[in-house]
Design goal:
homodimer, 345 residues, Rossmann fold, Dihydrodipicolinate Reductase, domain 2, six-stranded mixed β-sheet, 13 helices, 12 strands, 41% helix, globular
Chain lengths: 345, 345
């Protein structure tokens, strides 16, 4: 039985859902995987760099009573990780699509401090995948990011563990739920702004909803998926990107009545099958009978074309905050299983 | 680099597709996973127990030139495995739903001979899961069966590797493609028998198509999924089972016109959420907008309800023989990765 010191960098909706899920699942983790844990560090803009070497009380954390037991509180991520004796850092700060900062720096600091780094921040994957993966290998730690693209849909781990020696040829996906909700609201006779507000009420938008609306969130996800699964870096600037801001409401409603609704569709493929890697994000009217048409609300789906299977679809129906938190938790358990197997020693 | 001696028990469509795929993927397996292989044993009713300690020529095998280099040829599975120095046995004999034999016996023999056992035969899972898994653990070998339920859809490995500490509450699935093809043919104005013939032409039926038509194939898959993923044995006799033989053609056509087609739907759930484990296989008219309605031909899909995610769907679109073979190949690579990590020593 190993006890892991966990550090939560970012303590918004996702960080809090993770703390709650850790508490719910602690018995299953202990019995099923020989893993115990305590939260020894919590950091956010509001809380500063709080540390409790003997572990925070989760109930109090969730009630907002975060009192650092180390004084003066450490300043900066490296001092914080050291004071908290971090074994695993969970990074859940909000997306900055163009640089991936400060997430990339946080993950680097965690790996250099000898901790596993688990992130929900896709910027860290797009802007740091190569560097951070190499660093993780060099330090014998894990850099994991299952929750970045589709909440807890096991995309990266599915390819890593379940689809060895299969080649990903292309994919087509609905990767942004805010735009689905906006389109659905327009279909129901409301306007664009009401759609944005509904998505915000559901708690599914990025901190800055224009990242969703203008296709940045989806484009970053395309880059993350392509870079990792098609094994070639795809840069944000290389993704053709068109958001949903200028969708014509009449056309959106007519499309729904035809049974061929609009969705913000993300794609990656190679020119001529084996050539240059390409990506696109744009509103597309789905074909008649497309299974994506049945997915509404916060649901996400990806259809992969593989050399060994014409189509493999994986979809999350109405994932919630607990689902995103579970993506992080699964990464943590997988890192612990690696430790158990002696990987990285 | 380790060279594996592979033994193919059953050399019908799936066994041959596996031999072909092994040849296609040999470079990727060598470079990506440090795995080399030769086929040292091939057995079928027609071929007997053929052995070539230095490896068969795959091209000749596929051309039907199978000449045992050991004479007299061994009689029976144990002598054959020993003569072939089996490291991995692939079991692809045809389904016998009520006893799982002779597949259970073959897998047992392989594990006792110190080989990994990879099977496409769901009978071995339903009738032997507990015994064979324990035997595999005791011998430090793997008993893997990804291809049994949905060709190469990574169902078992997804739960094992990607969804740790997630609880499966229930599932609903289209697990038999022969019945989908029959229903589609009836929708197009043909009759039941023409539907069966079309499925046979596609090469997707069980050796005895009544196993498909009367729901046995689907029921065995429900048992396999429930037993492994819901961690409680579900027996074939406990699954309510109704096939497609008596579907009314007029109703089938009317249902399609409504956009709510019939499918042979498989389910497992617990009474009252946490009570007795139950299963059913029966023709059901799908709800309006059900993504399953968009899946035709040989496509298969499963929708899981998890404690951490309301719905997770995984679907294979038009899988082919290569896809089934890939399910076996992925199991082999995963067994080899376990060896590489020193599991079972």
């Amino acid at each position: 039985m190993k006890t892991y010191n966990l550090c939560l960098l970012g303590f918004g909706n996702v960080g809090r859902a993770l703390a709650r899920l850790l508490a719910v699942k602690s018995e299953e983790m202990r019995v099923g995987f020989g893993v115990e844990w305590k939260i020894t560090g919590v950091a956010s803009r509001r809380l500063g760099w709080a540390v409790a070497p003997e572990g925070f009380d989760v109930e109090k954390l969730l009630a907002g009573e975060v009192e650092s037991r180390v004084s003066p509180a450490p300043q900066g991520v490296r001092a914080w990780l050291a004071a908290a004796g971090a074994d695993v850092m969970f990074e859940t700060t909000s997306l900055e699509p163009h640089t991936g900062q400060p997430a990339v720096g946080h993950v680097r600091a965690a790996l250099e401090a000898g901790a596993h780094a688990v992130t929900a921040n896709k910027g860290a994957v797009v802007h740091g995948y190569e560097e951070l993966s190499q660093l993780a290998r060099a330090r014998g730690r894990k850099f994991l990011f299952e929750a970045t693209v589709a909440d807890c849909l096991p995309v990266f781990s599915m390819f890593r563990e379940s689809l060895p020696a299969a080649r990903l040829l292309s994919f087509r996906a609905v990767l942004n739920s805010t735009t689905t909700v906006i389109i659905e609201e327009i279909e129901r006779g409301r306007n664009f702004q009401e759609g944005v507000e509904r998505a915000q009420l559901m708690g599914i938008t990025e901190t800055d909803p224009s990242y969703d609306v203008d296709g940045w969130d989806a484009a970053v996800k395309v880059c993350a998926l392509a870079t990792v699964l098609m094994r070639e870096p795809l840069k944000l600037g290389e993704v053709e990107r068109e958001g949903v801001r200028h969708l014509d409401a009449m056309r959106v409603r007519a499309a729904r009545e035809e049974g061929r609704p609009y969705r913000l569709v993300s794609r990656a493929w190679r020119d001529g099958g084996g050539g240059k890697l390409r990506g696109s994000v744009r509103p597309e009217q789905l074909e008649q009978g497309d299974p994506f048409a049945a997915l509404g609300g916060s649901s996400l789906a990806i259809r992969f074309a593989l050399d060994v299977l014409p189509g493999l679809t994986i979809a999350a129906h109405e994932p919630n905050l607990q689902s995103t938190a579970y993506g992080l938790l699964a990464d943590f358990i997988n890192a612990a299983r690696g430790d158990e197997r002696g990987e990285g020693r």
